[in-house]
Structures are given as structure tokens and as C-alpha cells.
């Protein structure tokens, strides 16, 4: 058995997989030791604080924060995590008192006793497209391919229950699915939602996870994450820094886009550095996160759910030039590039301002998770 498991683990990393931990619930939290632990996953150190420790707490829009919490209670994960608080949420009349009387803030700490991480931002892009391939509309937005296979091995090998194996069949063997470069050279066996006029905008749509497409008929459709090809995400920003094209301090969505404009012959080289490909679904509503709820601008964040429970409520504090965020947020989304204990990606909404702020946001971050007082 040991040798079979060893072979499978090596095989998984060759073919491509993603770690998908189960949601953390209140039953999994051990406050007495100041740690959040869950089924052998990395520990998150929590330091008990008071609301007086939260920057600009008194200036927070508590009514707005409460409304966002109510919205999040429509998800099963938030409802399970906060149980009675969600059940009685409609009875609340004083929002600030609700937070201070029902919750205790715990500052999230790294293993090295560092309480500072990083906040970035994402937004809902707007692309130009058509339901048919013609003229400038030549880049397909695919649904998940028909020949993409996702395997859950947990029922047979419990040690692998946090992994999903993705690939395709060749004969009776499962092999890695097509990389980005390979996909551009074949007819992918997948339904096309629409065609867009820019492969660069399509790539950024994959990074953001969801967006809107203005069709040549005047209609707008919504699309969101459906699946991915199983290859590990690689940052094209880091690639451009590593080859000396953009200084690290200047890297942003805007600087990357400007580099593409100046170097059109090298667009494929850079995009193909990231073998990962995201596939989409057409949706009936605006951007939604991993909880299946519409995201709230500047109130919804993506987290690494190995360390922070998806569905939980947090207070975030981050500041850089002309941008300051001190507010209650909900962990309602995840992302391939969001890795680490004190790491968050804030959803900034739709439109030019959201794109501008999201493209440049890279601010020092402190996070406090808000847990019910009756947990102890």
C-alpha cells in the first residue's frame, strides 16, 4: 500500500491536481490553544484582541457590514459556521452592538509571529464579444471540455482526499490535459460560450475568474469559473520580472498590459508561461464567488481556505497610496494565486475605477477573524 500511495502522489503531481480542503466549521476550532486546526492541515495561530484594537473600528459602516453578513448567511458554509447568529440575524436592530456583543476578534498570526501579510484586488472585467466567430471575434471562451476528467480518489485512498486529479484518457491511461500552448493549436472538445476580440483580455478574465461580455448584438452576458485544466498556475508578472522586462516594484496589471502593447510579437510567449487554463460557465447574475453568492464590492474577499474558513467574517486593515481599507469583510471566494495565512484578494466591483484600483493594489495587510463569544 505504501508503494502504491507513493506512486499515486508522484503521478498526481505529474498529471496536475489541485488541493481542495473541506470547509472548517466551529466544531473544528480549538480556541483554548489559540489555534484553528482542521484535519491535519496547517495551523492558524489566533491572538485574542478587542474591538478597540481594530483600526478605525468606530468609523466603520456597521449597518453595511451587517447587511453583508446577512447576505453571506444565505450560504450553507456561513450558516453552518455561525449557526445561531445567522438564524437570528433578522432580529438585530443595533448593528454595532451586534458585533461587539456577539463576537470576539482574533488577530491572525503566521508561524513566525508576523501579523502582516498582503492584500491585492480583483474586479469584474468587461470584454467585447460575439456568439459567432467572425471579424475580430476569434478567441473562444470555452466551457469545461467534454474530455476533461476530474478524479476524486478519497473513497479509495483517504490520504489523498484533499486532492483532485485532472487529465484526459489516451487509450486506457490518464494523461495530463492540454496546456495553454497546446490548446491554442488544436480544436478543444468543448462548447464555446462566445468569441472575444482580445486574447489578452481573455487571459485577464481567467485570472479574475468571472466577468461580463458585451455582445455585438448589444446584449450583455455574465460568465464565471467552471473548471480548469489541472496544470499549476504560474504568474506571468513574476515571469516578466525574472527575465528583466518589468522591475518588481512596477509590476501591476497596468504595467503588464502596457508591456503587451509594446511587444505584440511576444504575447504568446508570456501567456504560455502559465500552463493553467480556466474554463467558464454562463451565469444569470453578476460575479459570484466560491460560496455561490454574488460578490459585494469592497466587502468580499478571496482567501486561502487551508488557513481561513470559507464563509467566515473578518476585519481587514490595509493601506497604500490613495487607498485605505479598514472594514468588516466576508471570506466568500478563493483563487489559485491566493496562498498563505494572511493573504487576501478583495473584490472591487465592476468598471474603470475597480480595474484601476485592483491592478495596482498590493498593500500590507492585517486580518482579524470574528468568532462568536459563546465559542469558548
Helix-residue proportion? 10-25%
What's the CATH class label of the largest domain?
Mainly Beta
Largest sheet composition: 6 strands, mixed, barrel
Strand tally: 20
Q: Structural class of the secondary elements?
A: alpha+beta
Roughly what is the average pLDDT, rounded to an integer? 86
Distance between the termini: 41 Å
Query: Which residues form runs of ≥5 with pLDDT under 50?
Result: 1-26, 36-41
**In the CATH scheme, what's the topology name of the largest domain?**
Barwin-like endoglucanases
> Tell me, what's the shape?
globular
Number of helices: 11
| β-sheet strand percentage | 25-35%
Strand order within the widest beta sheet: 6-19-16-18-17-20
Radius of gyration: 22 Å
In the residues, how many domains can be counted? Answer: 2
CATH superfamily of the largest domain: RlpA-like domain
The CATH architecture of the largest domain can be given as Beta Barrel
Describe the structure in your own words:
It is a single chain. With 376 residues, the protein is of the alpha+beta class. It has two domains: 26-122 and 292-375, Barwin-like endoglucanases; 126-283, Ribosomal Protein L25, Chain P. The protein has helices at 2-15, 62-72, 76-82, 84-87, 95-102, 180-183, 199-208, 236-242, 253-262, 267-271, 352-360; strands spanning 17-19, 29-30, 35-36, 44-48, 103-109, 117-124, 126-130, 139-142, 149-151, 163-170, 173-175, 192-196, 210-215, 220-228, 278-283, 300-303, 313-320, 323-333, 343-350, 362-372. The protein has a six-stranded mixed β-barrel with strand order 6-19-16-18-17-20. Strands 8-12-7-13-14-15 form a six-stranded mixed beta sheet, covered by helices on one side. Strands 1, 9, 10 and 11 form a four-stranded antiparallel beta sheet that branches. Strand 2 and strand 3 (35-36) form a beta hairpin. The two termini are 41 Å apart. Residues 1-26 and 36-41 have low confidence and may be disordered.
Amino acid at each position: 500500500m505504501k508503494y502504491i500511495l507513493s506512486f499515486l502522489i508522484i503521478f498526481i503531481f505529474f498529471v496536475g491536481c489541485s488541493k481542495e480542503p473541506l470547509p472548517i466549521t466551529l466544531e473544528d476550532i480549538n480556541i483554548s490553544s489559540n489555534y484553528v486546526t482542521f484535519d491535519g492541515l496547517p495551523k492558524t495561530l489566533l491572538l485574542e484582541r478587542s474591538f478597540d484594537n481594530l483600526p478605525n473600528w468606530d468609523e466603520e459602516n456597521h449597518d453595511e457590514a451587517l447587511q453583508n453578513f446577512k447576505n453571506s448567511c444565505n450560504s450553507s458554509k456561513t450558516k453552518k459556521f455561525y449557526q445561531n447568529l445567522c438564524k437570528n440575524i433578522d432580529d438585530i436592530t443595533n448593528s454595532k452592538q451586534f458585533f461587539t456583543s456577539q463576537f470576539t476578534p482574533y488577530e491572525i498570526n503566521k508561524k513566525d509571529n508576523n501579523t502582516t501579510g498582503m492584500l491585492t484586488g480583483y474586479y469584474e472585467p468587461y470584454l467585447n464579444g460575439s456568439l459567432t466567430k467572425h471579424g475580430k471575434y476569434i478567441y473562444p471562451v470555452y466551457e469545461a471540455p467534454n474530455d476533461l476528467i476530474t478524479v476524486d480518489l478519497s473513497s479509495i485512498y483517504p490520504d489523498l482526499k484533499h486532492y483532485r486529479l485532472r487529465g484526459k484518457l489516451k487509450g486506457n491511461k490518464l494523461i495530463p490535459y492540454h496546456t495553454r500552448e497546446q490548446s491554442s493549436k488544436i480544436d478543444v472538445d468543448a462548447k464555446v460560450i462566445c468569441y472575444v476580440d482580445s486574447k489578452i483580455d481573455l487571459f485577464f478574465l481567467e485570472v479574475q475568474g468571472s466577468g461580463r461580455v458585451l455582445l455585438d448584438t448589444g446584449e450583455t452576458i455574465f460568465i464565471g469559473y467552471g473548471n480548469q485544466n489541472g496544470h499549476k498556475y504560474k504568474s506571468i508578472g513574476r515571469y516578466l520580472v525574472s527575465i528583466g522586462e518589468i522591475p518588481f516594484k512596477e509590476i501591476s496589471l497596468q504595467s503588464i498590459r502596457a508591456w503587451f502593447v509594446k511587444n505584440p510579437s511576444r504575447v504568446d510567449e508570456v501567456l504560455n508561461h502559465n500552463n493553467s487554463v480556466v474554463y467558464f460557465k454562463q451565469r444569470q447574475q453578476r460575479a459570484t464567488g466560491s460560496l455561490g453568492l454574488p460578490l459585494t464590492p469592497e466587502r468580499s474577499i478571496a482567501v486561502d481556505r487551508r488557513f481561513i474558513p470559507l464563509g467566515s467574517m473578518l476585519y481587514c486593515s490595509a493601506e497604500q497610496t490613495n487607498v485605505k481599507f479598514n472594514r468588516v469583510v466576508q471570506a466568500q471566494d478563493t483563487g489559485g494565486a491566493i496562498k498563505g495565512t494572511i493573504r487576501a484578494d478583495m473584490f472591487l466591483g465592476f468598471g474603470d475605477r475597480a480595474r484601476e484600483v485592483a491592478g495596482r493594489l498590493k498593500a500590507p495587510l492585517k486580518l482579524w477573524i470574528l468568532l462568536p463569544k459563546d465559542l469558548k
